[in-house]
UniProtKB/TrEMBL annotation:
Keywords: 4Fe-4S, Iron, Iron-sulfur, Isoprene biosynthesis, Metal-binding, Oxidoreductase. Its cofactor is [4Fe-4S] cluster. This is 4-hydroxy-3-methylbut-2-en-1-yl diphosphate synthase (flavodoxin). [4Fe-4S] cluster binds at C270, C273, C305, E312. HAMAP family: IspG.
Length: 372
């Protein structure tokens, strides 16, 4: 079902994180963070490449020490994705990774220390065209704000962010983005809505420490979905206690469901019931696993019976309606052929890949004609 997203995005200043535009009219970027030991260069490079294959636009790497900073330099040489260095307290680490080719510094200027240290970091960022990400987290609010508010609140998150922003403003540095994360959905949403009205810089969305794969996906989908529906958000990170690759997949699924960005197949599948004429759940599990490498945008409906099947198939690019003795396959909304249960998954994979190849060939032909 082709329908443009009704969401009107908040206008924000555009910055560049490496070669990825963030803010303005740029697509919402999906990012994750490595959970390997940064000094283990081989493992970290491997994870970044896995995230890239999954579709990540940006990857954040924790750099807690000078040894990690030197390792970061080696990592930078081996990967092409834009890298954000996550740094706390030690300004010398920020200066070093700036020399080593970092694409963004995730720091809180107020945590760096004396003004001369803050000035040095900002100067290095300015000289290297390196943006800064201010990252406020409910779990690490300044002690003065903890005393003032008693506990983390949306207003406390915003006040913390504005303190750091004021420091950058005093140094006339405007190439930054901001995140205000909490594990509590309503607090996070409230904080982002408030700061969105106060600054022009892009906002990086996330529900921090959201939980495991299932619970974290639900919590992130609700919180990020509320904000994205408001038009708020220029980058997103789904924080899961799981393989970081899953964060990228869930992030794209969230954007795909809101028609904000598309990557891979959008499956429309029934939950199955006793009316089904084939095993819908097993078929879907197999197709998703087999077609993970497909990045093309395609709507595919897999419906187990004739009640909703024909209607869904008619508005999808490809569709399958369960039937007896054979299932009916649709292409471009029209019945195309019948498929037997015995070879159903193999046939569906083949037909989907053929459609992807046909579209690619058509696109290449159009490009070739335009070049001539």
């Amino acid at each position: 079902m082709k329908q443009d997203s009704p969401i009107i995005r908040r206008k924000s200043r555009q910055i560049m994180v490496g070669n990825v535009p963030v803010g303005g009219d740029a697509p919402i970027a999906v990012q994750s963070m490595t959970n390997t030991e940064t000094c283990d260069v081989e493992a970290t490079v491997g994870q970044i490449k896995a995230l890239q294959e999954a579709g990540a636009d940006i990857v954040r790497v924790s750099v807690p020490s000078m040894d990690a900073a030197e390792a970061f330099g080696k990592i930078r040489e081996q990967v092409s994705l834009p890298l954000v260095a996550d740094i706390h307290f030690d300004y010398k680490i920020a200066l070093r990774v700036a020399e080593l080719g970092v694409d963004c510094l995730r720091i809180n200027p107020g945590n760096i220390g004396r003004d001369d240290r803050v000035s040095a970091v900002i100067s290095a960022a300015r000289d290297g065209n390196i943006p800064i990400r201010i990252g406020v987290n409910a779990g690490s609010l300044e002690k003065s704000l903890q005393r003032k508010y008693g506990e983390p609140t949306a207003d406390a998150l915003v006040e913390s962010a504005m303190r750091h922003i004021d420091i950058l403003d005093r140094h006339d540095f405007q190439d930054f983005k901001v995140s205000l994360k909490a594990s509590e959905v309503f607090m996070t949403v409230d904080a982002y809505r408030k700061i969105a009205q106060q600054i022009e810089q892009p906002l990086h969305l996330g529900i921090t420490e959201a939980g495991g794969l299932r619970s974290g996906t639900v919590k992130s989908s609700i919180g990020l979905g509320m904000l994205l529906m408001d038009g708020i958000g220029d980058t997103i990170r789904v924080s899961l206690a799981a393989d970081p690759v899953q964060e990228i997949k869930v992030g794209f699924d969230i954007l795909k469901s809101l028609r904000l960005r598309s990557r891979g197949i959008n499956f429309i599948a029934c939950p199955s019931c006793s009316r089904q004429n084939f095993d819908v759940i097993q078929t879907m599990n197999d197709l998703e696993a087999r077609l993970e490498d497909v990045n093309d945008s395609l709507d595919v409906a897999i419906i187990g019976c004739i009640v909703n099947g024909p209607g869904e198939a008619k508005v999808a690019d490809l569709g399958l309606t369960g039937g007896s003795p054979k299932n009916l396959f649709y292409m471009a909304g029209k019945p195309n052929q019948k498929l037997d249960n015995a070879t159903l998954t193999d046939d569906l994979e083949r037909l989907i890949r053929e459609e992807v190849a046909r579209r690619k060939e058509q696109e290449d032909s159009i490009i070739a004609r335009s070049d001539n």
